[in-house]
Amino acid sequence: MDVRLVSWMTYVWIQAQIWDVQGYQSGPVDYVSEKDISLLEADKNPKCFTRTLEDFTCFWEVSDDTSYDFFYKTDEQETTCNLTRQKAGGGRSLQVCSLPASDVFLYAVTDIRVVERSTNRTVLNRSVSVEDQVLLDPPTNVSLSFTGEAAQLRVTWHMDASWQSKVQYEIRHSANNLVGSKILMKASLTYMLDSLITGEVCCVQLRVRPNGYNTRGYWSDWSQPAAALVPQRAEDIDLLCHTSDLRNIQCQWKEQSFKEEAHCMLFYQLSPRGSWQQCMFSKSPGQCIFSGLDSSIMRVNLRIKEGPHEWNFYTESFAMDESIKPDPPKVLSWGKEGTRLRIEWEPPLWNLSAHLEYQIRYRCNGESMWKLVILQSPNNSTTLDVQAGTQYHIQVQTKPNGSIYKGIWSDWSNTLCVDVPLDTEMVFVAGIFLISFIVVALLITSFSRNIRKIKQLLWPPVPNLEKVLEGFLADINRECQSQTFSVKQCYEETPASVVEIVHEKKPFEGGKGPKEGVLQLLLEGKTVGECITPLETCPDYITLNPENVISSLRSNEYVSGGGHLVGVGLEVWQAGHPCSCPCPSSGFTQSMDLLNQSYLLPAEMGKGLGFRELASRYTNLELATYPAALD
């Protein structure tokens, strides 16, 4: 920044020296500068200009020593102008003619003719009006001043009063290698530059030309440059002004950005149009205090001068009741409520206690992260969630809630260290949890060691079906080999009572009744008790045709339609009466033989048994007669 400022100062000094050497003259001009030549470069030859509307000068370039005559005519009479030869840069030469003031007429056409003297040949000619060839001097006394706002500069200059309402300006400003320009179509001699780069050197120049209403012409040369440091914002140096008691304003800033020999001065303004006053009371470097008013709108300007340079810092306009920074609260007491910690503090300003809000931050001892609690109420106490048996660090800060008073957060209060006592119930619960954890850990360890056995109990292995089937078949074969015969079991149904139908006729031959004959045939010498026991029961007997007589009956037999006896063998008898007979085989052999012949045809059965005819269709009858002999 200092190098740029020095370079701009050097440039301004050089421009001033050139200005003093060349200068700008009013009235007839006998000297044409290089700037004039460059400004009129676009004009036709001979190039003409006027500075005050009372002078008129024409010139053109020549490359040799040829002699010329210059003629001009305003009325009917043509007049000769005395030419002067002038050296220009680059080995060039100029032929210059300055008309006397008596021959300068406004709003009239002037005819110009240049003739080569040796040949009397016209080489240049044109018609011009003086009011159209105006080339003014640049503005003077260009200066920069502060407006009381950051990033702004006020530009002022001086212009001849006769031209103030007839000209337009172009202002050019540059800062940090950035150039901007603007044409000003107004008669004012001041202009406000805003949105500049703060803290940078700004250089300003102006030029002028007729506005074209009554006169026309060319842009003048640029004026001498004016340079200044653009004012900065208060935030650039951390300038902060506030009140803690609604009476005094305290401003503080950082001085580390400047050298020790820098001189700081603080100025304040108690009203928008009031004068700037210097703050005289300072407690320490980088701080100053002055008295304010409750309803006043104030501004503060900090000026830091270091060598030939001066930096300016401006605050925004502020009121006292909107710039409050309270002192930190004072923590008075604390206590435990159940599992929470209650703290209480004292407000910094009792007259503002109903318009304050608070922030509490706390952390465990050894931790770096703070827990933040915001209380948007004027209560000066709260409860915090803490852990028993832990040390906590607690701080409190406050600020206006914005309802009536506004401001910023205060500094944090002094740190309060609290040792929260241990809770016996929590210790007991923690012990239970610890024991439960140990038991669960042991169970998990035991389970992981015996997991294979548990799996075998819960999910037994799938048996080999081939081996199981082989064992099952072997057991069946073993049981079949051990059983030599099967005995059919006897039904347990109650036999029906025997109904005996006695024939009314006389007995058969031989004097024996049917019942007696039948028993003799069946038993063949056995007693009645010996036969009834193995047979258990005897079927009922019904005689449907008493004329038919069967010679003998040895088992359940039926008579076919042709009169032949059909024997029902042992197997049929056993199906109807599944009984086993434990009687000795010696006395019952013939009866069993007869029963075993039940599968024979009726004719064969009759022949084998020696039956000559059938006695009845049903053989379950007592017979009266017996055959003489058995075949």
TrEMBL record:
The chain crosses the membrane at residues 426-447. It is a single-pass type I membrane protein. SUPFAM superfamilies: Fibronectin type III. This is MPL proto-oncogene, thrombopoietin receptor. The keyword Heme does not apply. Pfam families: EpoR_lig-bind. The keyword rRNA-binding does not apply. InterPro entries: FN3_dom, FN3_sf, Growth/epo_recpt_lig-bind, Ig-like_fold. The lineage of its organism: Eukaryota, Metazoa, Chordata, Craniata, Vertebrata. It is found in: Membrane. Keywords: Glycoprotein, Membrane, Receptor, Signal, Transmembrane, Transmembrane helix. It comes from the Eukaryota. One of its GO terms (molecular function) is cytokine receptor activity. GO terms for cellular component: external side of plasma membrane. Residues 325-423 form the Fibronectin type-III domain.
